[in-house]
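Appendix B, record 7
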Amino acid sequence: MAHWKERLLGAAKSLAYKALPPPTSNFEYNRRLWNRYARFWWLTRSFLRPYQNNGQGPAGSVAFQTLGDEWGNFSDIECILADYVYPFVNAQSVLAEVGSGGGRIAVRVAPRVREYYCLDISQQMLKKAQIALAGQSNTRFILLEKPRFPLQDDAVDFVLAFDVFVHLDLHLMWKYFQEIRRVLKPGGHAFLHTANLKAPGGWEAFSRQDSFRVEHHYFITPETVAVLAGHAGLRIVKESAVDSTNFYLHRDYLFVVARD
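Structure tokens (predicted):
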């Protein structure tokens, strides 16, 4: 009798929920958002140019040449790359950047490695990256159609995802953690970062949000990151400390994981 009751209840739930439109996944929402942003970036670039001396980048025409330059201070990013990326790569490294966007990180890192895969869910972003990296012959551009990297197992030495996980919900982060583990060679490393609920800047930003929107940030804690990394078979080997003088270190949690 209980078996039939469960089946009837299940059927009733199916009918009830079937009437509701399926929600847009975090993956697809990100795709739509960044395709639109890339299309209209010229407006953002023009609007921000008068403010290029206000902590956004160096003076002169070099500011905001690459999509994404408007999101952070150049010197802050260089400090982060020097600590979390450059020590782990060399001229023989094969690197995959997840969420390469307009190429603002790739233009700095690609000249240091043998092969550089730009992976992004946005076709429009990849077009911007191709323009930014036109003179770099070692780059490859790959559109992500789903949360799976079209790379072979054990294919890369280093995975990089800068300013990307801050826009992902926890389930999509978990899928990416598993993919990172799959494509990394044994002994390989990955540099990732999340918005940090425990950091002063992170809490300030979180407390101003009424709810999560991809346009803003999804906040988690370093302890949650450790759970995801551990279950994915990755080991945290380097992590950030709060630094109020660096935009990202004041708000986010930056870390390097290794595949043993």
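Remarks on this record: The first strand starts at residue 94 and ends at 98. DSSP finds ten helices and eight strands in the chain.
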